[in-house]
Amino acid sequence: MVTNLPAEAKAKWAKYSDAKTPEEKLRALQEFLSAIPKHKGTENLVYWVKRRMAELREEVEERKSRKIGGGGPSFFIEKEGAAQAIILGMPSSGKSSILSMLTNAKPQISDTPFTTKFPVPGMLRYEDIQFQLVEVPAIVKGISEGAIWWGSRVLGIARNADALIIVVDLSNNPTHQLDVIINELSKAGIYTVRPKGYAVIERSKAYQRVSVVNLGKLVNCTADDVRKLLESYRIYNALVKIYGEVTLEDVERSLFENVVYKPTIILANKADLYDTATLNTVLSEIKAKSTSIPVIATSAKTGYGLSEVSVNLFRVLNLIRIYAKEPNNESPSPRPLILKDGATLLDAIKHLRSELLQYFKYAKIWGPSAKYPGERVGLDHKLMDGDVIEVHTRIKAI
Ligand SMILES: Nc1nc2c(ncn2[C@@H]2O[C@H](COP(=O)(O)OP(=O)(O)O)[C@@H](O)[C@H]2O)c(=O)[nH]1
Ligand SMILES: [Mg+2]
Fold first, then answer.
1. CA–CA separation, 80 vs 77, rounded Å?
2. Is the whole-model pTM more than 0.85?
3. 268 CB under 6 A from ligand 1?
4. Is the CB of 89 under 6 A from ligand 1?
5. How many whole angstroms from 362 Cα to the centroid of ligand 2?
6. Does domain 1-72 have CATH number 1.20.58?
7. What percent of the chain is modeled with pLDDT above 90?
């Protein structure tokens, strides 16, 4: 159901959209919040506004403390390697133990909950590439509504990551833990299962009006309904992209929330405490809740199951590795380009050296996507993991 906000609330929303500084935004959101009628249809919106306000308050605080020179450890971890995966879980589920078993990192492991107060990164090798794993402070119920000071920061890191590793403690009601974590993430607009459909709204004065690009299917509404909805929020210059099956409610939701999907794996940790039969029963309960997310039984104590982590991460991330080779060289570069599954030769060359495109003649290809070794292909050729490419140009040695 669409929120059916009164015009007054929509006008306040427009004011928030135009606000520049965090202080202005905070004030505008406060006004917006008081103009929202409270009923079932606006529940999610109210959640979102409160969470956004908590984030803004923190931003204001952080700016202040930076001005007076407050140092200390940071919540921001620069990405390294092929992808960044965040280790999320409730207190004492074994996040630090797993990080220290899988990587070179030395986080503090302890029976005391909330030991890890800032993110800790480490590198995990997978064949010829590496993933960056980052342990973050524990998730608790209510974290998306400001239950704990690091809440919005943990969710912010998760939002910015390439993948999530959810750790649940098998000895402490794991299905409940999973429920809480997935619920907090989804309240923050972070989905662990690919949504059926979603809309992306790009606002810019460069657009003459509201236009809809339908890359999927609008359900129970027309492009004109979408335009009218946006105009009721005083949005007149925007491009709305529709992916998958999208309702008018989904479009309205994407106005407020920036919904993202994160490839996820679940580690059911402390498997050493159970015999095989009990373990299998609990695992099937977790799998029933997690739908399509892979579940791996692990023990940070014995190392059981941990070798499965990197290969599962690689799989859910949908990455491919492409090896570039110079025409006059025998062997390709040992360091692959990392691309998304579905990438074409054009994408690979853009990553490799975009200047090559100007002089592109053809490419030769070896590996899984080649019909025969050294096949000649064009820019639209779809690549596969493990391909070797050799780009030929019209001018030699550019
Ligand atoms: N039996 C068992 N204990 C574990 C396992 N992983 C962690 N622990 C213990 O659980 C407690 C919390 O571990 P820690 O890694 O600090 O959890 P975190 O709070 O999630 O980072 C410590 O006492 C660990 O020794 C495991 O796989 N099996
Ligand atoms: Mg820890």
1. 9
2. no
3. no
4. yes
5. 51
6. yes
7. 65
CA of 136 to the centre of ligand 2 (A): 7
With a 6 Å cutoff on the Cβ, whether 111 touches ligand 1 is: yes
- Note the pLDDT of residue 398: 53
Cα distances from 81 to residues 75, 89, 124, 365, in angstroms, run 19, 23, 9, 25
Instruction: Please give the CATH architecture assigned to the domain spanning 319-393.
Output: Roll (3.10)
| pLDDT computed for residue 215 by the predictor | 82
- Find the length of the chain: 398
Structural domain spans, the chain? 1-72, 83-192+260-317, 196-256, 319-393
- State the distance from the centre of ligand 2 to the C-alpha of 21, rounded, in angstroms: 35
What percent of the chain has pLDDT above 70? 96
- Reply yes or no on whether the pLDDT at 145 is more than 80: no
Judge if the beta carbon of residue 305 lies within 6 A of ligand 1.
Answer: no
Domain 83-192+260-317 has CATH 3.20.20.70: no
The number of the ligand 1 atom at minimal distance from the alpha carbon of 90 is: 20
Pocket test for ligand 1, best of 87, 93, 97 (most atoms within 8 A of CB): 97
| Mean predicted lDDT score pLDDT of the chain | 90
pLDDT exceeds cutoff 60 at 138: yes
Q: Is there an atom of ligand 1 within 6 Å of 192 CB?
A: no
Looking at residues 361-382, what average pLDDT do you find? 96
Higher pLDDT, 254 or 283: 283
Query: In the structure encoding, which two tokens stand for residue 370, read together?
Result: 């080649």
Taking the CA of residue 111 as reference, the ligand 1 atom at the shortest distance is: 23
